[in-house]
């Protein structure tokens, strides 16, 4: 993923050039109000980009945590099923717990 960085320079730092009537003018002959508007838009875009990057990182971290937790619970369920199979028929209390666990999954 590429991150673009914008550098804002004040108008006073732009090189000047001489016009036909010997009056100095900026290379970009835009009015100061337009430059201020563009600068504020760029600052807003940069802020939005930073917030999006932060949100994306947080969502990726949450997805990883959920995947790890899902694997943990899947392993625990398989171990519990294997242990119960080895120990014989379930007691009524265990049967109810297994039934609730099966209801939470689609294929049971």
Explain what the structure shows.
By secondary structure, this protein is mainly alpha-helical. The chain has a domain at 31-104. Helices cover 64% and strands 6% of the residues. The chain has helices at 32-87, 92-104; strands at residues 16-18, 24-26. It has a two-stranded antiparallel ribbon with strand order 1-2. A hairpin with a 5-residue loop joins strand 1 and strand 2 (24-26). The longest helix is centred in the middle third of the chain and has 56 residues, at 32-87. The protein is rod-shaped, with a radius of gyration of 32 Å. The model has no long low-confidence stretch (mean pLDDT 75).
Number of strands: 2
SSE order in H/E notation? EEHH
Query: Largest sheet, described in full?
Result: 2 strands, antiparallel
Strand line-up in the sheet with most strands: 1-2
Rounded Rg: 32 Å
- Provide the residue-averaged pLDDT: 75
Distance between termini?
41 Å
How would you describe the shape? rod-shaped
